[in-house]
Amino acid sequence: MRIYTRTGDAGQTGVIGGRVDKDDVRVEAYGTVDELNCFVGQAMGFLDAEKFSDLLADLLDIQNELFDCGSDLALLKQELRPYKVKAEMVDQLEAWIDKYDAETPDIKKFILPGGSQASSALHVCRTICRRAERRVVTLARTQPINEEVRRYLNRLSDLFFTVARLANVRSGVGDVEYARSADVFRRK
């Protein structure tokens, strides 16, 4: 199989249901999700297989779900096939957030990205996830999307914040607090 097709040489790419310009907001949205997926893979490389076997399994599931997100975002019309991203996937993210958050200490101040290498990489995932969510919001203003993708990305960025903190805890490294922050958080 040849990797190159030459079909995009004129600045267009194929999506499910047609062709669009490579700088189309739809391509920007699913391209950012693809970028996020790459950084998730990189972050996984920084996680010790023994200490983080549970998280590594969950992140592998997330990588597959990010492909589902991209596939749904590449779909021009929902009539062409059913959406892949479902509400249950958001529910699962919330369950993981609760599970991993229970292992982290209470926070009172804003947290800076840092601590361990794994934590820093997971914070990068968080920020790219937020950018992907912004691209999806922009796309949804003018074109139909699977609304569950937007919800999924919103919750996923919360998970990345939580597991970035978890990475520090399990590595025996403290979170880096924003030095000029007042106490702003309280657990309920």
TrEMBL record:
Pathway: Cofactor biosynthesis; adenosylcobalamin biosynthesis; adenosylcobalamin from cob(II)yrinate a,c-diamide: step 2/7. The keyword Nucleotide-binding applies. GO terms for biological process: cobalamin biosynthetic process. Pfam families: Cob_adeno_trans. It comes from the Bacteria. It catalyses: 2 cob(II)alamin + reduced [electron-transfer flavoprotein] + 2 ATP = 2 adenosylcob(III)alamin + 2 triphosphate + oxidized [electron-transfer flavoprotein] + 3 H(+); 2 cob(II)yrinate a,c diamide + reduced [electron-transfer flavoprotein] + 2 ATP = 2 adenosylcob(III)yrinate a,c-diamide + 2 triphosphate + oxidized [electron-transfer flavoprotein] + 3 H(+). Keywords: ATP-binding, Cobalamin biosynthesis, Nucleotide-binding, Transferase. One of its GO terms (molecular function) is corrinoid adenosyltransferase activity. Residues 3-166 form the Cobalamin adenosyltransferase-like domain. Its EC number is 2.5.1.17. It is an enzyme of class 2 (transferase). Belongs to the Cob(I)alamin adenosyltransferase family. Homotrimer. This is Corrinoid adenosyltransferase. It comes from Paenibacillus foliorum. The lineage of its organism: Bacteria, Bacillati, Bacillota, Bacilli, Bacillales.
